[in-house]
Amino acid sequence: MNFNANSGPKQPFGRKIKRVSDVNAMGYNPYTQPQPFPNGQDAAQPQPAFNPQHQPAQEFNQSYTQPNNVPYNNFDTNQYANVPGIGVFAQPMVQNMAMQYTQQLANTGTTMVKKEIERFVPVNRLKYYFAVDTKYVLTKLGLLFFPFTHADWSVKYEQDGPVQPRFEINAPDLYIPTMAYVTYVLVAGLVLGMQQRFSPEQIGIQSSSALAWCLIELGVYNATLYISNIQTSLRTLDLLAYSGYKFVGLIVSILLSIVGGSTAYFCMLGYFSLALAFFLVRSLRAQVLPEISQQEAYYGDNVPSSGNKRRLYFLLFVAAAQPVLSWWLSYHLIRYTPSVTL
Amino acid sequence: MAFTLWNLFEASLLCLNAICILNEERFLVKIGWSAKRAPTGFGENPTAKAQILNLIHSIRTVARIPLILLNIVTILLKLLLG
């Protein structure tokens, strides 16, 4: 079965089917064709204020049970037609206007909701972190496991920010950490099942626990950056991305522990910790440690010389926290696997 | 190792409560942990202790009202769900 959303019947040669996301851009609204409501009111509208008291419930029932079967002309014989004021909704022009008015209301509602959400969750910045493609993901995974031969670690910048991860291999992304986190939860379930310790609640417990530790780690990094007064261009989402890379090694270690027991687990964990520490120090060095350009050195101490030590310590702290956290997140999963004598 | 998001939420709520309880005038000034910026240095390089005290002061100012709501919600949840 083909789950690809774009593959349907083959398109005629030379013609691209336009995808329209906004019905208003089409020039007409397919939904304002006059619907044959039995009592001449829009079913989606709240009942108008001048309705008789006992009738709203019945009208709702009527409009839901007879959606399209009653032809348009029948409402003249409707018993509600002699109620003053309701007849105005029967005319198609008024229906059109009501529909457009509610559409505008809905549009302003969605823009307001989006603006409120933008205050809490930076959606545009999030989109930057997910702008990846296959080549980037594969290269980045290879880099995570073997960063020793990579030469150039600098990140190219555009006018307003770093280049998208799609075009710049050294930029952090959130796609790999998210996928690695989900895979970690699944692998944890798999390993627990192999040890007869699995139940569906375990999925929730494992995922919630890993998420809680990620949040604690982020909180500690932010507090450390604030307290030791380190000026850096690292955003919180960058820190989240860099601390999410450890899940990749985590799942490989856990999977290897199935085959090789604790020995293989610790070997893989040790190697990946080394590689990740190397990767992190090299990647973050450009962003956390200051780059002394020629002009700044001339124009006085713009460069805090005492801050260098603090920045270095912060880098080493981040790099050292990764193996500790990886061990803490996975040790309870491999405790019961028998180690195979090599 | 069932350390879930709910436990994290409870622990952080307790910690924030502890921070917000400390009264500035009656207690912190006596120890010398007041958050009023000492006139030494124009803040080019505020010391770590000053940053921590600043953090505590701002947490107290910002989080007081939401903490009241969070505490009420948590108490109700604990009463109902045990």
From TrEMBL, chain A:
Identify the Pfam families for this entry: YIF1
What membrane topology was assigned to this protein in its record?
Multi-pass membrane protein
Disordered, as annotated region: 28-55
UniProt keywords, alphabetically: Endoplasmic reticulum, Golgi apparatus, Membrane, Protein transport, Transmembrane, Transmembrane helix, Transport
- List all membrane-crossing ranges: 174-193, 205-227, 247-280, 312-334
Q: Give the subcellular location.
A: Endoplasmic reticulum membrane; Golgi apparatus membrane
Q: Which InterPro entries match?
A: Yif1_fam (IPR005578)
Polar residues bias locations: 42-55
Protein's job: Has a role in transport between endoplasmic reticulum and Golgi.
Question: What is stated as this protein's family in its record?
Answer: Belongs to the YIF1 family.
Name assigned to this protein: Protein YIF1
Species classification: Eukaryota, Metazoa, Ecdysozoa, Arthropoda, Hexapoda
Gene name, per UniProt, is LOC108568638
Automatic annotation (TrEMBL), chain B:
Family matches, as InterPro entries? Yos1
Q: Which residues cross the membrane?
A: none
Q: Which key words are in the record?
A: Membrane, Protein transport, Signal, Transmembrane, Transmembrane helix, Transport
Query: Which region is the signal sequence?
Result: 1-18
Q: Where in the cell is it found?
A: Membrane
Q: What does this protein do?
A: Regulator of endoplasmic reticulum secretion that acts as a key determinant of brain size. Required for secretion of extracellular matrix proteins. Required for correct brain development by depositing sufficient extracellular matrix proteins for tissue integrity and the proliferation of neural progenitors. Acts as a regulator of the unfolded protein response (UPR).
Q: Which family does it belong to?
A: Belongs to the YOS1 family.
**Name of the protein in question:** Immediate early response 3-interacting protein 1
Query: Where does this protein come from, organism-wise?
Result: Nicrophorus vespilloides
Gene encoding the protein: LOC108563726
